[in-house]
C-alpha cells in the first residue's frame, strides 16, 4: 500500500525524471500520487498510481522496466 514517507526507486536505469522519489501524499483510491525528488526535496509532481510497485519484479519473476519500486517503507 502506498503511504506518505515511502521512498521509491526508478525501475529503469534510463529514466528521465528523478531516480528516487518520496511520497508526499496519497489518498487511497486516488489515481495519482504526489511525490518529490528524494535526494533534493524539490520538484513536486503528480504521478499515476499505476507507476508504483511493491517490488522490482513482475509476477513472472522478471525485472520491471517501467515505474517505481518500493525502496524504503514509511517510518
Give the key terms:
75 residues, mainly beta, six-stranded mixed sheet, 6 strands
Characterise this structure.
A 6-stranded mixed β-sheet has the order 4-3-2-1-6-5, with no helix packed on it. A hairpin with a 6-residue loop joins strand 2 and strand 3 (32-37). With 75 residues, it is mainly beta. The chain is built from no helices and 6 strands. The radius of gyration is 12 Å and the shape is globular.
- How far apart the termini lie comes to 14 Å
Question: Helix amount, in percent?
Answer: under 10%
In this structure, how is the largest beta sheet organized? 6 strands, mixed
Q: In order across it, which strands form the biggest sheet?
A: 4-3-2-1-6-5
Oligomer state of the chains in this structure = single chain
Number of strand segments: 6
Output the number of helix runs.
Answer: 0
Class by SSE composition: mainly beta
Along the chain, the helix and strand elements come as EEEEEE
Radius of gyration: 12 Å
Q: What's the average pLDDT?
A: 92
Q: How much of the sequence is in beta strands?
A: 35-45%
Low-confidence regions: none
Broad shape: globular
Amino acid at each position: 500500500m502506498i503511504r506518505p514517507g515511502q521512498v521509491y526507486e526508478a525501475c529503469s536505469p534510463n529514466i528521465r525524471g528523478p531516480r528516487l522519489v518520496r511520497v508526499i501524499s496519497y489518498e487511497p483510491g486516488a489515481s495519482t500520487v504526489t511525490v518529490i525528488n528524494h535526494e533534493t526535496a524539490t520538484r513536486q509532481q503528480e504521478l499515476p498510481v499505476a507507476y508504483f510497485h511493491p517490488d522490482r519484479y513482475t509476477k513472472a519473476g522478471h525485472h520491471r522496466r517501467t515505474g517505481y519500486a518500493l525502496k524504503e517503507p514509511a517510518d
